[in-house]
Amino acid sequence: xxxxxxxxxxGLYKKCYSPKMPPTGKGKHKILFIAEAPGETEDRxxxxxxxxxxxxxxxxxxxxxxxxxxxxxxxxxxCRPPGNEMDSKYIECCRPNLLNTIRExxxxxxxxxxKGAVDSVIGPYWRKDMGSLSRWVGWRIPMLEYNAWVCxxxxxxxLLRMNEDELLELIIRDQVREARGMEKKPRDYPTLEQLKSxxxxxxxxxxxxxxxxxxxHKKGRMAFDYETTGLKPERQEQHIVTCxxxxxxxxxxxxxxxxxxxxxxSKILMxxxxxxxxxxLKFEERWTRVKLGHPVTGWMWDTMLTAHLLDNRPEITxxxxxxxxxxxxxxxxxxxxxxxxxxSSNELNRIHEIDRRDLLMYNGLDSLLEFQVYEVQKKIMDxx
Length: 384
Description:
Nucleotidyltransferase, domain 5; about 40% helix; alpha/beta; 11 strands; single chain; six-stranded mixed beta sheet
C-alpha cells in the first residue's frame, strides 16, 4: 500500500477552510472512528463529527455512557469535498493519509462509519466486489493488516436521512457497543503464511495413498474439498483434479486425485467414523456420486448453510467471506480464481494451467479454513 498521499491530484485542499484535517480525540480507549469526509461545520471548525450527523452520533454514544472525544476520530477524505459528495478518486488519493494515521495511532479497534470508510479500509484487502454497506455492517473483523478489529456500521447521516428511525438507531447502538468491547479482546489469529506452513502438499501417488490409509483408520471430524475441471460433473470429460483434507483442524494435506487414489478416497468418504464438513456440501456430494459412484457418508456440517442460518444477508456465505470476517484471511485465491471459472456450468475450466503446487496449496487452505470457520460457527451456535 502506498504511504504518500496524492493530494495534488484531487486538489480538495485548495477549496476548504481546514485542509488536511488531522485526527482529533484523546485516544483514551485506543479506538479509532473513521467517518467519510468533513461537512460544512467540521470544515469551518477543524474537527470531525461535530455537525448534525456528528451530534446525532454523540447522542447515541451518550446512551452508552461513552464520550466520542475519548477516542480518536478521522475521515476517509480529510478535506471537505464540494457539496459533501464522496468520489472514489478522493478515496484513492487520500487512502495513504488514512493508512499513515492507523499506523501512527495503532488502535485496537477501528469503527467504520459508512460505505466510504468500508471501501477505503477493507477494499484494498478484500480485492473482490465490495457489494453494499449492508453486507458489512455488524461484523467484527480481526484484520491482520492493521493489527486491529475492524467494525463497520452505518454512518449517522444515514440515520438522519431515515428520520432517526428507532430501529436503525438501536442497530447502530448495538453494533457500536459490541465494537467497543473488542478493544480488550486479543487478536491471536494466524497469518496466511502461518496457515500455509501447516498444509502438507503431496504430489506423488504412493505417499498420497499412504496418507489416505492413515486417515482411513482415524475417528473424528474432517473437512474435505475438491478442485475440479468445472461446476457440473456429468460430462465424461469432467473430473476431480485434487482433493484436500483437514482432520480435527490439526492435520491438513492435499493430493492429486488420480485413478489410483479413488478406491481409498471412496473408503474415506463412506466411513461413518469420519464426520464430514464442507462449504456447500452439495458440490462434493454431487461429484462423489457421479465420479466415484456412491454418496458421502457421515455429513456433519455445511459452513455455507450455517452461515445462512446465522445471518440471512446475501453474499456472505462463501468460505472466503466467512474466513475473512471471522479469521481475518483476506485473499488467498485471486491469483487462480480466473482459471477456475468457465463460461457456463457445463464447460471445462482452465484448471490445468495452474501450477499444481499452487492449486494443491489453495485446495488445502480451503479445507483448513472450512474447519476453522466450522469451529467459529459452532461456538456461536453453542453460545446462543
